[in-house]
Amino acid sequence: MPDQRVDDSSSSVQDQFLQVRPGNTAKSSVSAVSSQSMIGKSLIIKGEITGSESVHIEGTVDGVITLPTDRVTVGPGGRVSADITAQDIVVRGDLTGSCDASDHLYIRREGSFCGDIVTARLSVEDGASITGTIDIRRESEPALGEPEQETAEPELVEPSPVN
User: Fold this and answer.
1) What is d(CA 14, CA 54) in angstroms, rounded to the nearest whole number?
2) Among candidates 117, 100, 33, which has minimal Cα distance to 25?
3) Are 61 and 81 in contact (CB under 8 A)?
4) How far is residue 39's CA from residue 14's CA, in Å, rounded to a whole number?
5) pLDDT in tens, 87-139
6) In this structure, is the dihedral angle defined by the CA atoms of residues 95, 12, 32 and 52, taken in order, positive or negative?
7) In a domain, 120, yes or no
8) Is residue 56 within 8 Å of 36, Cβ to Cβ?
9) pTM
10) Is 15 a domain residue?
11) Distance from C-alpha of 49 to C-alpha of 138, rounded to nearest angstrom
């Protein structure tokens, strides 16, 4: 097996798929995984979760999760019924609700999602379950409620007949 070393700042990442390596950083920030709170499998939370660190959910959450610059992970034991706003969302358990991931939404093979998705990037592994609507936003597209920037008129091109 080849030597697979990662820097210490990403050693808390449990998922090889999501590791951040020097020189290979995407829009997702290292801070999205460097400090992470855990909601254990015996915990049940009803209400609103907000803050400035990532959260890993193995228990049950019902409500609203707002962590716009961080990662929300629904672990294999997690059961979440919530509207989630985060930079990255990883689904390995059951998630029902609407998700607004400013960077990336991952639905892993053991994950199940039912609801509405708004994200810039979406990854769905073979075996994952997904039901609902998907809205892929380009990075330059404004979010709902933001004014659109003016763009140049598109050039009209005459179609040519094909024989």
Assistant:
1) 13
2) 33
3) yes
4) 15
5) 999 999 999 999 999 999 999 999 999 999 999 999 999 999 999 999 999 76
6) positive
7) yes
8) yes
9) 0.68
10) no
11) 27
